[in-house]
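ok trying this again, last paste got cut off
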Amino acid sequence: MTALQQLIDHRFVEMGCWNECPGVAALFLPFLETHTGFTAHGYVVSPERPDSRVTVEGIEKADLLMKEEVIDFAYAFRGADDFELVNDYARCWYD
């Protein structure tokens, strides 16, 4: 969360909606602020390109999940393009 917040503060992260993803501010940040054991994943477009950016595509956690985490994850990311949720792993991804 700290690294993501620093990238956002320095305006490196694409914040708007894209494809079917509501975006970082509307979807990922609220969840990550509440559930600190999860991490964000995504990709970086080279600074040499005019469309340079960091895009967050999803979040994940590889550890035992608490009941509240399972419920919140399922509710928040049910619309993801890729969705995995078991008792010790959660991952979502937006294309």
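PB: full thing came through this time. Residues 2-93 form one domain.
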